[in-house]
Recover the amino acids of this structure.
């Protein structure tokens, strides 16, 4: 998943197993390198934010979750869908921030 995130312009970071906490103490400076996908295979994957806007909507109805995703994609553009709409029907994704409209 980290490789796909990088291909889409994101900065992935390994997470503590089962948590949303970065695994590395210097995670702000971390940059994914060849071999890290195997090195951190048993870890979760987070995204270093800054230019990204995170959206996490917990909805158990798949139809409503899809409608919510459509609204966010219309407003913010497409985002990786790897973690979106799991069995819980939760819509969790990140979008690159667009330049402010002035």
């Amino acid at each position: 998943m980290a490789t796909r995130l990088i291909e889409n312009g994101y900065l992935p970071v390994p997470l503590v197993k089962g948590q949303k906490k970065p695994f590395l103490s210097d995670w702000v400076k971390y940059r994914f390198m060849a071999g890290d996908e195997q090195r951190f295979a048993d870890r979760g994957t987070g995204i270093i934010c800054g230019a990204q806007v995170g959206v996490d909507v917990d909805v158990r109805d798949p139809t409503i979750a899809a409608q919510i995703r459509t609204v966010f994609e219309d407003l913010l553009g497409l985002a990786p869908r790897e973690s979106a709409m799991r069995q819980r029907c939760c819509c969790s994704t990140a979008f690159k921030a667009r330049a402010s409209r002035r």
In short: Residues 1-48 form one domain. The longest strand covers residues 52-58.
